[in-house]
Structures are given as structure tokens and as C-alpha cells.
């Protein structure tokens, strides 16, 4: 399968499926409509994330590869929105392919993916300087932070078959 995250977004038939875990070897699971980081073991079924490029050419070029992120086998996509004057990360029911087909980006759903070796970070396009993060404590929700030095923003984002 071709990885569709390159800076030159081409027409794609479907999203790429990836496994995701943080640097503490916690995998992500879906609990109700919340993504939780839990220790990787045989008793949990981690989510696969779908990702597909954002085709809006007007987005900043130096931030990373703009992508949409969704949870496989659901109609749930990750987005950032304002809550009491601060951005929050949430899941919203949307078709990731519908987001992809839209020429103008819905910035609340766009994340800039940056890679250093096999580690990825995901910065919100709607809230520059805010990154998807996990807590060191097990069983905590995935959130968004601007305190990159204190909170974990590094993830392994591996292709799934």
C-alpha cells in the first residue's frame, strides 16, 4: 500500500490505516467517545487510526504534512475546538473521505504531522503550537497541549496491514 502522507497530496481511493502508541508503550483504545492511553498487553484491542492528506494548498508549508485523522471502522474523526477559551481535543462524527474531498480545509480537523526518525508529532492547524499528547499516567485520555516539554507529544505511527 502506498503511504498517502507526502507533501504532494495526490488523489487517493481510501485512507491509510496505522497503529499508534506513545513512547511509554501505551496503545490507544476507544472508550465511549474518548481515546484513552493504556498499557499494551493481550487484553486490550488498540484502535487503528485512518489518515488521509488534506488537499488544501493554502495551508502553511513549513508546519509538516497536513492530514485528517479518524478512528478505523467508525465515523469518528479527531478535531480541536474551543472550550472556555482553550482548545480541546475531541472526536466528532464525520466521514474522513468527505473531509478529504473538500478542497478547502476544515482546519479544526487538520493536524500537521512531523516525523523525526520513527517518532511523529501532531500539531493542530486550527490552534498552532498545540499538539496531541498522552499522559505518563496509564488510563488517561489523549488530549492537546501547548506544554510540549512537560507533556508527551511523541508517538509511533506505524502502518497496519
From TrEMBL:
It is found in: Secreted. The keyword Transport does not apply. This is Interleukin-1. PANTHER family: INTERLEUKIN-1 FAMILY MEMBER (PTHR10078), INTERLEUKIN-36 GAMMA (PTHR10078:SF27). InterPro entries: IL-1_fam (IPR000975), IL-1RA/IL-36 (IPR003297), IL1/FGF (IPR008996). GO terms for cellular component: extracellular space. Keywords: Secreted. GO terms for biological process: cellular response to lipopolysaccharide; cytokine-mediated signaling pathway; inflammatory response to antigenic stimulus; positive regulation of gene expression. Belongs to the IL-1 family.
Amino acid at each position: 500500500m502506498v503511504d498517502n502522507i507526502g507533501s504532494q497530496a495526490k488523489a487517493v481511493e481510501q485512507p491509510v490505516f496505522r497503529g499508534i502508541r506513545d513512547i511509554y508503550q501505551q496503545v490507544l483504545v476507544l472508550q465511549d467517545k474518548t481515546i484513552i492511553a493504556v498499557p499494551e498487553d493481550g487484553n486490550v484491542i488498540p484502535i487503528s487510526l485512518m489518515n488521509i492528506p488534506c488537499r488544501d494548498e493554502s495551508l502553511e508549508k513549513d508546519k509538516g504534512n497536513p492530514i485528517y485523522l479518524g478512528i478505523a471502522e467508525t465515523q469518528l474523526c479527531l478535531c480541536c475546538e474551543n472550550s472556555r477559551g482553550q482548545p480541546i481535543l475531541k472526536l466528532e462524527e464525520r466521514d474522513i473521505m468527505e473531509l478529504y474531498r473538500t478542497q478547502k480545509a476544515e482546519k479544526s480537523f487538520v493536524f500537521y504531522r512531523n516525523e523525526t526518525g520513527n517518532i511523529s508529532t501532531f500539531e493542530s492547524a486550527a490552534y498552532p503550537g498545540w499538539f496531541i499528547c498522552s499522559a505518563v499516567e496509564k488510563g488517561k485520555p489523549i488530549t492537546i497541549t501547548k506544554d510540549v516539554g512537560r507533556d508527551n507529544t511523541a508517538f509511533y505511527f506505524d502502518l497496519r496491514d
